[in-house]
Amino acid sequence: MDRQLSTKTATTQLTSISRPPSGLQTIESGSPLSSKSLPRTWKKVVPKVGSFAVLQDPRPEPHPDRAFTRDAKRVIIKVGTGVVTRSRDGRLSLGRLGALVEQMEVLKSQGLEVILVTSGSVGIGRQRLRYQHLLHTTVSQRATNHALGVIPPQAAAAMGQGGLMALYDTLFGQMDMCCAQLLVTDEDFKNDDFRTALRQTVEDLISVGVVPVFNENDAVSTRTTPLEDNENRIFWDNDSLAGLLALQLEADVTVLLSDVDGLYTGPPDAPDSKLVHTFSAGMTDNITFGSKSRVGRGGMTAKVKAAWTAAQAGCPVIIASGKKQDSLLRAIVNGEQIGTLFHPQLSRREPPDNMFIDLRGIAKQTRESARALNALSSEVRRECLHDIADALIAQKDVILLENRMDVEEANRNGTAKELLNRLKLDERKLERLAEGIRTIANMDEPLGQLLSRLEVAEGLELQQVTSPLGVLLIIFESRPDALPQIAALAIRSGNGLLLKGGKEAFRSNHKLHSVIQGVLKKYVPDGLIALIEGRETVDALLAMHDDIDLVIPRGSNALVSSIQSRTKIPVLGHADGVCHMYIDAYSNEDMAIRCVVDAKADYPAACNAVETVLVHEQLVSDGRAQRLLTALRAEGITVCGGPRAAGELKIPVTIDLHKEYGDMTVTLEIVENIDAAIAHIHAHGSSHTDSIITSDEELAKKFLAEVDSACVFHNASTRFADGFRFGLGAEVGISTSRIHARGPVGVKGLLTTRWLLKGQGHIVSKDTDIEYTHKPLPLR
Fold first, then answer.
1. How would you classify residue 612: left for phi > 0, otherwise alpha for psi between -120 and 50, otherwise beta?
2. 3-state secondary structure string across 483-512
3. Choice between 152 and 510, residue whose per-residue pLDDT is larger
């Protein structure tokens, strides 16, 4: 459908006109256009110039980069959850929504076509469901903590969508406007017929003055993880939905309203952060994102991604504050330089040199501080670690308070139970952390240890000694307890650290880092352990192969695989933990059950939890396999079967034999003998940790010798694969690679070697005047 000409151009249906005076807009004298159809802020200043009435535009001169907004015809406005709700209690912000609707009425009065994309239904639904829960519980139930628990987002969306639209209908009605709801899912746009029908529906609504209001239909959404889209046919939150609609509906400009003023070079509340007025290509490599708002899904990272995708496809996008009452009018009507602009042409410009946090400078400072650490004696570094252990215990209350806030936010966001378990800290965990740090402190000095001596020639001695690796980049998810562990190992081994924690542990990580920094400042210059925030900093760090010596990712399979594919820096870690336990025919039944239950139920989310149990076929014929199955179910463990076990034991079949569940689920399969078990482990395992339960010593030796994994056990739970349990004090992670370190990586895994040559004026001189002896010397 062809769009109607905008009254905003002020000259309508003219085939030939004389140029009006500069800075003035004109309308033909005697035109049927009434004053009601003109922008209400314009005024008639000269009765007639030739055959034209002259109108003056009183708006301020637009910023040169934003002048294009004056010619916009169709605008998409996205309102985030952080804008439509109040920060103190999550309820709707009626005043803010009313102000936004008033601004949209002004835009429509000036001839613009307005399309709204709104969030907030899940937040409203949660409030309503909590109220319903309150109505349907007794006073005694409430007194005994009869909690509602985590509210599924689908149910909350179903409850909230009607209420949200009812409010919009009322607010638009007060402005003599109408709105219509359009609910879409992330898969709809893959259908060509759907996109055609959607466009026609929107054009029909706009043609009669109705404001289309889009929202993702979270009530029936099947998405499980954020998606990537290279064809602009799917979306993963309302920010990307707005960007997708901008392309499908040919918007002239899109405005993403946030709870902050725009994109900053760092967290908005950080003193060094600067507002980015115009986004430039490649800028995300240097921008540090803070933690997202406590509500909503995507945060600033999602807005930047959606905005840049739309801009690259030709639609300018502005990210601005929705909490300021005039943001829309200033951005669209006046063309002011507010918020952050993403523009197809302007975003190709280079950003100002001083805009970004200097990650390379931080890494260099970390290396210098590490060199100062290496100059300290072993005793001083040991004292430093004891001070850190004491500080963790002394400040445990405030650490646990910050952690509780992280856990509460994660609960509100519907974080999976296994991730919540990793996120939680308690007094026992802190005490164990302190104990581990003291163990590391009391270890023998790792640096400068003499590994070999060789007389190269008479009077010329070569020594090999241990030394630090240098600067380590550790990227970890949902595990705030990893921060002090890694810090202690780095200090003992003389390494500098760049730490990138997960956003879900933002507060916990900052507090733990602050406690450690408070101790370190007495011993070394600033910068030994730097905490880096923002997902978008990761790519910039991974490109710094001249300044970072080793990357150790700790987290999900997806995280580790992603890191390994994006950097030239050596990566130490494991992509997944598919641990096996083989129950041999010559096994003690009670021992087997005890070990399997412990390996799964002790901590199901751990990478060393057992995921597959292999049983010798004799255990099926003599009934032990069935009793094992019963014992596992009694512990709340769900059992899926491999192809053979599913048939013989009548259990659900698994679709993937290389499966890391991370919860109370395990795969059980039947094998013919130990050779078949080893072959299965090599085919479907991850070279992490595998164990055999048997009383046959020869079979145990065979298993220990032939299974090619980082950790191989006999008659023991796989959960023992841990740096603390190995007596290492702690670990930076478990490595399944075959270069450098393997298994739990402690202090020794963070060391390399150097060669020291001591001579008496020796020279090579083409090897003519030297007699090489290459005589091994005893270590001293």
1. beta
2. HHHHHHHHHHHCCEEEEECCHHHHHHHHHH
3. 510
Find out whether 92 and 85 touch, Cβ atoms under 8 Å. Answer: yes
The phi and psi torsions of 68 (rounded to 5 degrees) equal -60, -25
Q: Residues 425-434: what's their mean pLDDT?
A: 94
Rounded Cα distance, 287 and 46, in Å: 51
Q: Rounded to whole angstroms, how far apart are CA atoms 711 and 200?
A: 61
Q: For residues 724-731, give the mean pLDDT.
A: 85
Q: According to the model, what pLDDT value does residue 8 have?
A: 34
Please report which confidence band the pLDDT of residue 352 belongs to, taking 50, 70 and 90 as the band edges.
Answer: very low
Of the candidates 530, 551, 529, 375, the one whose C-alpha atom is nearest the C-alpha of residue 467 is 375
Q: Which has the minimum average pLDDT: 184-188, 247-251, 627-631? A: 184-188
Q: Residue 630 burial by CB count (10 A; 0-12/13-18/19+): exposed, middle or buried?
A: exposed
Are residues 26 and 14 in contact, defined by beta-carbon separation less than 8 angstroms?
no
Which tens digit of pLDDT belongs to each residue from 643-684? 999 999 999 999 899 999 988 999 999 999 999 999 999 999
709-720 pLDDT per residue, tens: 999 999 999 999
Using the CB atoms, write b or e for 43-60: b if 16+ within 10 Å.
eeeeeeeeebbbbebeee
Order of strands across the sheet that contains 579-583: 638-641, 665-671, 610-616, 579-583, 689-693, 711-714
pLDDT at position 47: 39
Q: How many CB atoms lie within 10 A of CB 401?
A: 12
CA–CA dist 467, 188 (Å, integer):
57
pLDDT single digits (tens) 17-72: 233 333 334 333 333 333 333 443 443 333 333 433 444 455 667 888 888 998 89
Per the rule left: phi > 0, alpha: psi between -120 and 50, beta: everything else, 694 is beta
C-alpha distances out from residue 664 to 191, 514, 626, 632, Å: 38, 36, 18, 10
CA distance 188 to 497: 45
CA distances from 661 to 134, 290, 581, 658 (A): 35, 30, 15, 10
Q: Residue 40 CA to chain centroid, in angstroms?
A: 46
Give the span between the Cα atoms of 387 and 365, in whole angstroms.
23
Residues in the chain: 780
Q: Is the pTM of this model over 0.90?
A: no
Q: Which of 741, 288, 745, 263 is nearest to 530 (CA)?
A: 288
Contacts for 438 with CB less than 8 Å, ≥ 6 apart = 385, 386, 389, 729
For residue 86, what pLDDT band results from cuts at 50, 70 and 90? confident
Question: Token match 């970072």: residue?
Answer: 548
Amino acid at 693: I
Which residues on neighbouring strands pair with residue 665, listed in sequence order? Answer: 638
Place of tokens 């034999």: 657
Q: Where are the alpha helices (DSSP H) in 286-358?
A: 299-312, 327-328
